[in-house]
Amino acid sequence: MQCYKNGQLIDSIPLLDRAFHYGDGCFTTARLVHGRMELKQLHIARLNYACKNLSLDADLSFIDQALDQLPQHEKNLNGTLKVVISRGEGDRGYSLPLHPADVYVWFYPKQWQHLEPEWIESGLLNHAIGLHMPHLVGLKTLNRLEQVVLKQEADQRGWLEALVTDVQGYIVEGVSSNCFIRINDQWITPELRYNGVHGVMRAHILSRMQQNHISCEQRCIEMDQIAHIQNIFFCNALHPMKAVVRFQGRTMQQQPYLDLFNSLKLSQID
Predict the structure, then answer these.
(1) For residues 68 and 35, what is the distance between their CA atoms, to the nearest angstrom?
(2) Tally of domains in the chain
(3) What is the CATH classification number for the domain harbouring 53?
(4) Positive/negative CA dihedral, 236, 252, 266, 194
(5) pLDDT tens digit string along 188-232?
(6) pLDDT value for 160
(7) Residue tagged active-site, from 5, 28, 29, 189
(8) For 178-185, what is the mean pLDDT?
(9) Residue that is last in its domain, among 52, 82, 109
């Protein structure tokens, strides 16, 4: 693993960094393939939007500076890239410091793998997530405690991913993924009105669906519709389709996933 701060290789983080004390910042996680950051424009747009909403003055050119240095220290340029924007160092209390934000880039090497559907078992978690402050909806902030609690339950149940609802009883997403659900032969993705993360892979899949004239509704999905679910798959920037073949003990057909995966050419992410 390597870590860069504002374009410089580092081996420690300041004790007074507000990312540690308050979760004060945002992040994005991307696949690095042969030294190239997949879906880079979507990741940069996500960070810019989050920085604007959180009043973070971040110079995102530091991301490219870190990427340019990777070949000097790493032969395997495949793996996971995590970009964290921190408010930086500050005194005690919530008042904002006046200096620019810090841009951290972590690189975790991993053997390159060809993308294909990943077949998983899943179910509905008992824990529900809350509603967010309106201008934080959709942002991937550094406050991930809800996801930690959700992942604990999913692990205890033996599920790699699981469906998550909110306190109003609407389906939102997975633990660390967005979701697409097929009901009555219609693909649907939750609209994320009050919570959830506006994922880059979700946006990419929606765009490809539109290009290929595949209908997908963005709307609320209530708990009473769970019994009518035909298929579910989860997606995030690291994998376009974790396809559920067994949900709550009920078997789901594989062919609709394969048809969609091939139609959208999800083995090729640019």
Answers:
(1) 9
(2) 2
(3) 3.30.470.10
(4) negative
(5) 999 998 899 999 999 999 999 999 999 999 999 999 999 999 999
(6) 97
(7) 29
(8) 98
(9) 109
| 51, 79: one domain | yes
* Residue 135 reports pLDDT greater than 90: no
Residue 75: is its pLDDT beyond 90? no
Q: Do residues 203 and 243 share a domain?
A: yes
- Find the helix or strand (DSSP H, E) in which 12 lies: none
Quote the CA–CA distance of 207 and 186 in Å, as a whole number: 17
| CATH code for the domain in which residue 192 is found | 3.20.10.10
Out of 121, 140, 161, 165, which one is annotated catalytic? 140
- Per-residue confidence band for 132, with pLDDT thresholds at 50, 70 and 90: confident
205 shares a domain with 92 = no
Domain membership flag for residue 268 = no
CA distance 194 to 192: 6
**Which percentage of the chain shows pLDDT scores above 90?**
93
Which residue among 38, 173, 189, 242 is the active-site one? 173
Instruction: Give the position of tokens 């090729």.
Output: 268
The pTM of the full predicted model, rounded to 2 decimals, is: 0.95
Q: Active site includes 40?
A: no
In this predicted structure, what is the pLDDT of residue 134? Answer: 87
Q: What is the dihedral of CA 220, 226, 227, 233, to 10 degrees?
A: 110
29 is catalytic: yes
Compute φ and ψ for 189, nearest 5 degrees: -130, 135
Phi and psi at 112, nearest 5°, equal -65, 140
Query: Domain range for residue 229?
Result: 118-263
